[in-house]
Amino acid sequence: MGDATVVTSSWRLVEVGRVVLFAGGPYDGRLAAIVEIIDHKRVLIDGPSASADKVVPRHSAALAGLSLTPIVIPKLPRAIGNAGLKTKWNEAQVEKTFAESAWAKTRARKDKRKTLNDFERYKVMRLQKQKRFAEKVALAKVRASA
């Protein structure tokens, strides 16, 4: 018999303490934590936040409308109350961790792009052309010297 190596999966599991991001609905783009698993399709979530406009009240939500993030609040008890969750949320620095992630930066970039008007989109296009031209010139110099 050969040796078997067991490697943990890199999947994001639905677990108590997992931070989720709303993918639509009235709480689109807000963060919350899974507090309790109701069944294989629904979870109880609560989203304390430092800013009042990003708070998610405790309610059940379908997993289909949520995106699981890689952030997990460690050792979160099942069905923890709002005050306890808020302290654990702040200890884990969930909002800061998510804001520093590539996912959040990409979302912010896309949101900023959506708000541009015609002239601003034109300026972005011109800057991209200038950047491409500079790269092309630099590459031509490298090829010529080689």
UniProtKB/TrEMBL annotation:
Residues 57-132 form the Large ribosomal subunit protein eL14 domain. Keywords: Ribonucleoprotein, Ribosomal protein. GO terms for cellular component: cytosolic large ribosomal subunit. The keyword Flavoprotein does not apply. Gene3D superfamilies: 2.30.30.30, 6.10.250.2270. The keyword Acetylation does not apply. Transmembrane segments: none annotated. It comes from the Eukaryota. GO terms for biological process: ribosomal large subunit biogenesis; translation. GO terms for molecular function: RNA binding; structural constituent of ribosome. It holds the Pfam family Ribosomal_L14e. Belongs to the eukaryotic ribosomal protein eL14 family. This is 60S ribosomal protein L14. It comes from Eremomyces bilateralis CBS 781.70.
